[in-house]
Amino acid sequence: MLELLKRLLKALLAGLLMLVIGVVVINLWILQKTHARVEHEVPLCAMQPVGLVFGTAQWLREGGANPYYQARMETSAELLRLHRVQHLLLSGDNRTRYYNEPISMWRSLRHRNISDRHMTLDYAGFSTFDSVVRAKEVFGADRLMLISQGWHLPRALFIADALGIEATGCAVPDDGVEGEWRLRLREWLARAATFGDLYIWGRKPYFLGPLEPIQL
């Protein structure tokens, strides 16, 4: 019995090691494949017709403004003023009447003097995967600037590549916040899961809908 338990433990450890190696290899591949298209200086971000802004919570659970959200809004407004993009696609979660990321982004950008004619709201961007797929399949965007934190952009670019979207990444300023290491670790796992979404189990967006091309 003891010998059997040892064998099972060895098999478990070997499987865990292979899983860790797989996650690391996939991450290194995605980072190598996309890093050259992530620009960290906002004025130097490559011009694109549409900027896809990924939603996140406006407020932190423990209270106060979410710095990730604020950085995305400031950068998105600046990109329009600098004419690096012509239009913003605000894509986020709209899970309840009290939590609506696209509306929050729209209001924040209105407060930054961005006109409605430069914004389109995507209420079904429930994940990075859904936001990128819907940008092409629903809003007809085959050229995109992806706007988010630098550590998030490689995964979004990887998805765009798989869909045949011509995409670049514009990293918003990121001074880091307490506990950011957890988000970065989760991102490593999310990149590996995205590989499976695209090439193994064929994930589909939660919701699509009719084509609604963005009018530039």
Please give a structural write-up.
- The protein is of the alpha/beta class and 216 residues long.
- It has a domain at 47-58 and 65-173 and 180-203: 3-Layer(aba) Sandwich (Rossmann fold), CATH 3.40.50.620.
- The chain is 46% helix and 15% strand.
- The chain has helices at residues 2-34, 67-81, 101-111, 128-137, 153-162, 180-199; strands at 38-39, 48-54, 85-91, 119-122, 143-148, 166-171.
- Strands 1-6-5-2-3-4 form a six-stranded parallel β-sheet.
- Strand 5, helix 5 (153-162) and strand 6 form a beta-alpha-beta unit.
- Helix 5 runs parallel beside helix 6.
- It is globular, with a radius of gyration of 19 Å.
- The N and C termini lie far apart (70 Å).
- The mean pLDDT is 93.
Fold blueprint:
Layout: H1 2-34, E1 38-39, E2 48-54, H2 67-81, E3 85-91, H3 101-111, E4 119-122, H4 128-137, E5 143-148, H5 153-162, E6 166-171, H6 180-199
Helix pairs in contact: 1-5, 1-6, 4-5, 5-6
**Range of helix content:** 40-55%
CATH topology of the domain at 47-58 and 65-173 and 180-203: Rossmann fold
Low-confidence stretches: none
Count of individual helical segments: 6
* Assembly state of the chains shown: single chain
Architecture per CATH nomenclature, i.e. the level-2 architecture of the domain at 47-58 and 65-173 and 180-203: 3-Layer(aba) Sandwich
Over the alpha carbons, how many angstroms does the gyration radius reach?
19 Å
CATH C-level name of the domain at 47-58 and 65-173 and 180-203: Alpha Beta
Shape: globular
Strand order of the largest sheet: 1-6-5-2-3-4
Structural class: alpha/beta
- Fourth-tier CATH superfamily name of the domain at 47-58 and 65-173 and 180-203: HUPs
